[in-house]
## 1
Amino acid sequence: MSTAILTGQPVPGSSLEGDLRSLGFDVRLAAEAGDAETLLAAVPADQRVAVVDARFVGHLHALRLGLTDPRFAASALPGAVSVQPEVRRALTRAVARESSASGGLALATDNLAERLTAALDTDGVAVFRPELGTLVATVPTDPQERNEARQAVSAVDDEAVRLRSAVKARDGFFTTYCISPYSRYIARWCARRGLTPNQVTTASLLTALLAAGCAATGTRAGFVAAGLLLLFSFVLDCTDGQLARYSLQYSTLGAWLDATFDRAKEYAYYAGLALGAARGGDDVWALALGAMILQTCRHVVDFSFNEANHDATANTSPTAALSDKLDSVGWTVWVRRMIVLPIGERWAMIAVLTALTTPRITFYALLVGCAFAATYTTAGRVLRSLTRKARRTDRAAQALADLADSGPLVELLVRSARGTVRIAAPLSAAVGGVLVVTSALLWGAGWQTVLCAVGYVLLSALAVVRPLKGALDWLVPPFFRAAEYLTVLVLAAKADVNGALPAAFGLVAAVAYHHYDTVYRIRGNAGAPPHWLVRAIGGHEGRTLLVTVLAALLTAAQFKVALTALAVAVALLVLVESIRFWVSSGAPAVHDEGEPA
């Protein structure tokens, strides 16, 4: 239970007390500033507390936005301020100062909430002020203003506003026009029945896994059912975020589930399609793994570019200006959003092709579409990076270093080479990646490939020997991801033994989960995974070298077993640590607003 301290004399006919109680607040009345101090001291230290002017007039949803959002330690709107336990002391100090300055006069309660908000700002507390739009939140000072405010409240349907604001402002064409018009009502239905976003997220995962199971049957009926279930899973995927925004149910666990389940659903579905194709005598595991690699590398490009430019100064370019200009032309916005094949369009395409064609055709279309989207977005970002005069910060360089996922071998080499070597980081990473992947293509499980993998380790160290602050240094993590994943794919394919590619699929999936987990920790300002974990799973260069050595030492059948064991070991380590972090009190209470592509 949260507590709301209502300051001043209650206004006859006001619904404020009832509104606050409907939002879960235990309402206390404070006629004087001294009363507010006494009541605040009586509130348990682990509770949220709000101070609200008794004259407040506004929409219920305005109060909800300003007083109950769990993502912010302090939030305010006209005539009201709310704080969570972590900044309770700052509010207590502000109330004590007000009480001392007023001498306990009743007059001191006038605009007390506003003065407390100003005091929190002065103390350096970050106070969130929600965008209210057409919602009303005001403190009238006379009967005429109160009457006008009440009329303004009656003129705006806050439930309609609440439903509209539950939908993300920026989304893909398919999601905006084919899903959100009705999924928002499903979100409201869930809210009124006490369902949580986490429950809806879990339902979406289970539905997608059921879709993957249907695809794995390899029958036409199974493929049709899989396509329909995948679409329904996406509806639920939209609903969980809309439910979180509709009811302001944000949580650390929800952040983790929302961040990871989309990938788990999509990649599990790829595996289901591959299993279904195998039942029909068509081996498409290489295509499934290729699709997963391409999609993951696309996301790493997005994440790296955004982190590199997150807080860069002088962050402008002619390319960015042209992009902003195109955004002002309605139809170009939708075309540009669709051609990058965001999750809505991508899942719709996969679902339709699954139902109407074969897994092989589905993967071909997916690879072509994602390859075009990756080329388009990466080329645009390279042009922006080359034409802008941005100066990147230490924070951005650290984020890129964390995304690089360098292990103990690179760390050892960097300590030896620091200050003695100067080389362009993206060039070094790209050459190293091409070297190891090409050697795997040419020689497969040979010692030549191992030797080239050693070269990849050396070049990887040269890429990160200096802080990643160059114009194109954000390309380093994507190059590392592509090199590691493609090496595993090529060596598994060349092993030419039944089960090698599914084992490789599992290994890449486990490593990709680790990389996504790193991204979402950074997004939540929680830092990268612990150093011991990165060391334990070898870093990208250690895993790449290990896979080439295993391929050279073992028979094809033994290599398959080794890949399986490595996949299980990595998955256990990263999952246990990830779950420990995301359910801990130190995890960020954020809600991911969706992937960029």
## 2
Amino acid sequence: MNRSMNVVRGTAAAATAAVLTALLAAPAAQAAPGTRTLYAAPDGRGDSCTVARPCTPEGARDLARAVTGHDVRVLLKDGTYRLDEPLKLGAVDSGVTWAAAPGARPVLSGGQDITGWRQNADGTWSADVPAGVTPRQLFVDGRRATRARGEACAAATCDATKAGMTGATAVGIDRWQRPTDAEAVIRVRWRNYHCRIAAVSGDTMTFAQPCWTNSASGTDRTGPAWDSTTVDSTRYSGVAFFENALELLDQPGEFVWNSAGRTVTYLPRKGENMRHAQAVTPHTEQLLVVDGAHDLTVNGIGFAYAAYRQPGTDEGYAGMQAGLTLTGATGPVDHAGRFYTKPAAAVTVRGGRGVSIDRTRFSHLGGAGTILEAGTKDSSVTRSSFTDLSSGAVYVGDTEPMPGAGLAGERNTVAYNTISRSGVEYTDSVGIWAGYEAGLTVDHNTLEHLPYSGISVGWGWNQTEAQKSVLRDNRVTDNRITDVMEVAHEQHDGGAIYTQGAQPGTVLSGNYINRSAYGNTERDGNGIYLDEQSSYITVEKNVITRVGYKWVSNWADYGIENTARHNWTDTAAPALGGTGSVMTDNLTGLDRLPAEALAVAAHAGSRGGPVEQLRTDLARTGTATQSSTDATATADLALDADTNTDTRTLVEAGAWWQVDLGGVRHIRQVEVWNNSASTTGDFDIVTDDGTVHVSGKALRPTVIDLDSRTRTLKIVTTGTGRVALSQVLIHS
């Protein structure tokens, strides 16, 4: 073989520029002179690997290994390649390009078809499942079904302890046909837990081990010593839902797996005919594994229906952070997450050098999209799409803060990708995660509709074993991150961009962040979150709007020398924590984005895009009063363009807050932002034209459409209580 290793050298910035330039300029699947082209097809056979007589992918790989004197490319013809095991490429496969044939859209699939559906008397349909297949996910005509689930169970009923949980009688679990097929799904702050019920005795449930032990306190392995987010902690508020029981199958699009009968039962959506529908469950766990290869390219190939088997075992899913879990009945005592386990991914690159994953498509996955790990360097994931994934999209690097040179992740690139609806099942996962990386570039990606953080770089909190690491010179630039930390998924304490650890030379710049934790039920969810030991990070020229909490958060006094400058945002934030941290020349409290900010936001993302302009706030120049004032929480703090400051009345009947606009104005919309304790609820909005009642507590924000001409707007409790607000915006 005539294959040369072209390892990118030089500075991190030069390496990144070279990688991006080469990727964006290179046409797909074009052969250089002297290249030997082999062909594979879904029905390939033999060892010719010609366009007329293609091989299997494994056959093409094996023939490529025998080629000498030429560069080699393998072109995959159109169709679905059903894999019972991953396609494995190693060092001997270095230099080969794997690409879609011209005009083709090949897909490597780990899916198993579920056929032979029969209708039941209750309108559900059932099918037998082949031996060895466990349907944790089901896709019907390409649309994800939902494991049948029940309602939430509050902690007062479903009381979790280290040993198990009460509530079986109240929920009805003690009367279910197969309670040991069911799982409890629990969300505590930033963590997500899925543990299978092992036994039911009266009102008490126990759970599969080690899942439950690893989800509870007392192992000394679940995280920092201060951690209070285990299932038996004071932060536990109950079970989000139980799932996978026939008794819960009551909504179209839900399914149930019966492990004893080896059947799956499904309630079709309107218009679905199971006699003709294609039903697929992920079965094969990995689809492509690249181990120790260099200068290898994967271009234009799709990956679908890869499984993630761990959550279906007794290990379950003891989520720790960002989609990583605690596994094993025993293990080293560690508080910095060094021994957490990543999810299974459709594509895994280990120890790669110059590996390029470009223009690929990841969809309908039971786990994650792709992982670059174990010392992968100078490699990239670019111009690819990730949609409908149970876990996160891209994982880069590892959790060891001081790896040896061979295991250090360096100069990798994640750029121009589109990530949408990842974390569908494991809602604590993030769009793009990076551990201890140096010279990482995360550039011009579009991330949208995610349950938790968008981009997470760094690891280890502030634990002793993580305070010195290889983290440095990372760049998170020009990304478009919208509708993340979606409040329906109840994951808290994150941000559109999240960092940990001291990262000298790291820059977060040119990103457009809109609607992170928008509509939250509490003061939580940030734009850019410099968490824990985050240090030496520059935050500049970002556009950050409509976030549920702070546009930039840097609360820890042990995070040092961070800088936030020249950013645009519609709210304010407290000063950065730590020694030597500064905020300078930021335009905050905006109710209109200036032209320069609009240009930055429009340029961000894989293809740029529209920008949600802010609306002029009529209340900003008004005069606020309230029925009474508790301490220093004065009425004007709802007009200061800062969602971190609060008004507060005394507890009293008919407590009110009011703004006088200075003249009659035409009001079309009001945004009511609750205070930090979510105090204000069951209130009336009173204008000169009438009253609108809002039931329940106000969100951050509750948005009310009006059509009123009024000089004053008053918010009045309908009983006895307080009115406490962080912000009120009024739009014409």
## 3
Amino acid sequence: MRPHVNDAHRRHLGLIALLSVLLALIAVPAGPLARAHAAACGTANVAQGKTATASSTENAGTAASNAVDGNAGTRWSSAFSDPQWLQVDLGSSQTLCEVVLTWEAAYASAYQIQISPNGTDWTTVASTTTGAGGTETRAISGTGRYVRMNGTARHTQYGYSLWEFAVHTTDGGTGPQIPGGGDLGPNVLVFDPSTPNIQAKLDQIFQQQESAQFGTGRYALLFKPGTYNNINANIGFYTSIAGLGLSPDDTNFNGDVTVDAGWFNGNATQNFWRSAENLALNPVNGTDRWAVAQAAPFRRMHVRGGLNLAPNGYGWASGGYIADSKIDGTVGPYSQQQWYTRDSSVGGWTNGVWNMVFSGVQGAPAQSFPNPPYTTLDTTPVSREKPFLYLDGSDYKVFVPAKRTNARGTTWGASAPQGSSIPLSQFYVVKPGATAATINAALAQGLNLLFTPGIYHVDQTINVNRANTVVLGLGLATIIPDNGVTAMKVADVDGVKLAGFLIDAGPVNSPVLLQVGPQGAAADHAANPTTVQDVFIRIGGAGPGKATTSMEVNSDDTIIDHTWIWRADHGAGVGWDTNAADYGLRVNGDDVLATGLFVEHFKKYDVQWSGQNGRTIFYQNEIAYDAPNQASIQNGATKGWAAYKVDDSVTTHEAWGVGSYCNFTTDPTIRMDHGFEVPVKAGVKMHDVLVVSLGGMGQYDHVINSTGSATSGTSTVPSNVVSFP
């Protein structure tokens, strides 16, 4: 890290900058020409909060994003060499008229301002070899999406350093207006109690989607408030069912919402990608059946009876997730290997197989891991429920629940839920055929996003740069990045809500699929964190897909609330090198909390945690099935890459109810040194940890580091560590 230029030198530079400004004012009278430019050039800084990149950074605290964050106290600085550049992606093509560079003491004496339609082909629109530092305003003319300061000569021996890089447009950045609101598209079916043939329509959708594990159909089934009789809504792949009331009790089914496993011979371990939300059920026989695996949330539901989480006949099951729900009767997981329930109320819980985790659940069983395998936290430290669509009279709105600390029980009991409503007119309703350019233009305009059910190919990154933006998907809306781009990036801003969509890797490798905060992000978001909820990531299965890292979280205080990050072990485009992916989740931000974390089958670390004070409540993992041999997963001197790695530099980290399973189908002789790898420090604590060999297909030598007994044989019995260290 270089020192700041000394104060005397800074004052000297400041005097030079002031003299330059005075000379400029003398040299350019405020005549008609100057007034015409001021009138034509909008005042909005369209670069603020956008995605910035640079040729280099001096250190982690001087990231490119600092130059476009609107904060005059943060800066980008480069390595100490020429040339260096900083560029910003405006998100859409703009008619440009001016840039304003606010230099730190280490400024450019020679630089160019360049614009580009694609980030590759650049046109120089302004240049100087006599840069004076301070605040420099450069008039430019042209149309482009990307704007770059290309420094060719430094004034000091240090790098290039900008407090802020502002870009102005002829229209103030508004561009063509994209309308908000409108209809919900062809794949959203809205019912009211008078709708004819409701059951027939539900059956039709289910027959299409029941076994369409990698199909292209996407559906949202929405029910207006009221009472519906004799309903049995079977829910297949890529189907979401939800009520449109502000409370689940506003929409009542005298009937069931059902997931079973008849399509897979009574095996529920592949009942992925579906959801039920915001409904009240009076089950016909007293107990509703929700036999699911990963990526099948049960949120904001009221079951006036019991809930069975196993398939008919009690075949295998591998789920699952419940939040903000009330089950009046008993929950029976039966064959479910693991389950996480958060901020809910249950009338009872009958059993556990390997790993049942509860936080903030009224009626949860007492802490008793490993016999029975219950991990119970009285409250959830921080939570904010998922946004949801509802009807206010005849108007659609999205309700955004408030953040809670040390929560217990549902948000919607006797009193109205706490939060805020956003009218649909403030959302760009994204429908099949929408382009990434239009999506980004809508975001730049200040709209939120509501993805209707469908598959969306994007040829450029979706850039979420505005604080408090809501990106909500219906019916497992699916985003596929083309040509190796990152599907979505979130700026280091407060309160973004990402919820309810699937990112499916494309055949060209993406460096990362979802990035929350740029690398080097350092802003404090404790009061208003970003949330990532029911956002699922898939590499392969529907076809070849590749990504180096699936999800990267750099912003501090982010809440990851239920995700399944999956490198496919079956389907199309599957193979050790065909759907290659090294890392599932990488966390670099501090104070990040994960509640309900499912990550599976990556070639290196499934989870790698580098930020301080991270916390995980419930983790489910399977090591990659298809490793061809022991050498293919060798990590230096360590046998195997840990399922959950906390970096050696971390001094504070805590996790509860975490498990890893191995099933090396290609070479069952493979051994893992351990499932979990953490630094041995007083502030790093692991609770209720297990590893399991599935039928003896590979083994673990330890649970955490060199602690915990080895798995052995074919009995599929966990090895447990109750507390570490």
